[in-house]
Amino acid sequence: MPVPITRRKLLRGLGVSIALPWLDAMAPVARAAAMKSPNRMAFIYVPNGMNMAEWTPKAEGSDYELPAILGELKNVRKNFSILTGLTADKARAHGDGGGDHARALGAFLTGCQPNKTDGTNIRAGVSADQVAATRIGDQTRLASLEIGCDAGAMAGNCDSGYSCVYSSCMSWKSAAQALPKEINPKLVFERLFANGPDSARQSRDAKRKSVLDFVKDDSKDLASKLGANDQRKLDEYFSSVRDIEQRIARSEKMPPVKAPEGSKVPTAVPAVYEEHIRLMYDLLALAFQADVTRISTCVMANEGSNRSYPFIGVSEGHHDLSHHGKDPKKLEKIREINKFHTKQLAYFLDKLAGIKEGEGTLLDHSMIAFGSGNSDGDAHNHDNLPILLAGGGNGTIQQGRHIVFKKETPLNNLWLAMLERMNVKVPSLGDSTGVLQGLN
User: Fold this and answer.
1) For the stretch 202-213, what's the b/e string if a residue is b when 16 or more beta carbons lie within 10 angstroms of its beta carbon?
2) Which helix H or strand E contains 316, and what residues bound it?
3) pLDDT over 70 at 114, yes or no
4) What CATH number is associated with residue 439?
5) In Å, what is the CA distance from 342 to each residue of 188, 226, 274, 338, 427?
6) How far apart are CA 313 and CA 337, in angstroms?
7) Cβ atoms of residues 414 and 389 within 8 Å
8) Total tally of structural domains belonging to the chain
9) Quick one: DSSP state of residue 54?
10) Which domain holds residue 227?
11) Pick from 268, 301, 332: which residue ends a domain?
């Protein structure tokens, strides 16, 4: 007969500990503690705004036609909503002149005006993710997880006198401390599953062993106590872990990414951008599934990024194209870049929707915010931002809609609403004016 186990059960081995996904055997323990599946939240950022005409639905409510950019998300349409009318006012100049890209990311989760400096006196505000991490981060192995796909400098001038920190970091632990993101999938994997010294990791690498090899005995003992359905879930989970390990290993053998002369490319970063993004999304899904963390930020590309996308027929740089001057050909190419990013988001949401947890799915028990701190890249405007909110928020969000809010509604009102659904209630955040209503 299956033996009840706790949600905190870990499989342990030398230098390794692996958290478990939600299993049926956990239900009796969860009920005894009056618990349900935890809520999670992730903030995903894309740079340079959007081709807004191809992003914004023409009709409000649930009966709207998906524009071209959102068409990539048609299979998960019922699991997300488009939120129009939200504004990041503190990304505006307010007398500080140029630097809209740096301010866009710096103010995105903080709602605070970044201090214009390229020196050490950087200052923004505490970001929404770190407000949550401070309050509930002690409930998981990692308080939060900061990841991305573009390396970012933590010093230097990157945008009209603004430090590179603002253009590359979304998460702020304090007003003066930005948290750098990890872009190396291998290091993210080690952070999620390894708890020993570097020597233990190096030993595993040298022997080309999986982390699963080190918890084999513990996992066999656990499996013997589980029912058939839980054994299947455990096998699927282990298969996901092993698949990511193998993909990371393959990426190490691939030719390095071509980079400008003098720059350094981190090891184990896939040469193919799409594979890099999907690896990071898979790692984030695993982190949520195993309850290693419930809070994450993910920057797809640094704000102001001039990355080109030749694999979808766009050889020009993204930032250069964003200054389109209403040129139809440039707008078409921006649309294709935007579609590429939403296609990757669709992959992630579909992944979460396919992971069963309790009475629902991992997507049902998550809130995924996707968007940019710029609206139209040519105008550098920060109102009517392209914002998508996916996931059920543990039954607290009604999805499948295009919701239009009053003009100049602070973006931080949405973050307050998400924090409230994480059982983190704060009176204000940055330039917020109250909890955003109308999501349920």
Assistant:
1) eebeeeeebbbe
2) strand 314-317
3) yes
4) 3.40.720.10
5) 23, 38, 12, 6, 33
6) 9
7) yes
8) 2
9) G
10) 1-35+186-268
11) 268
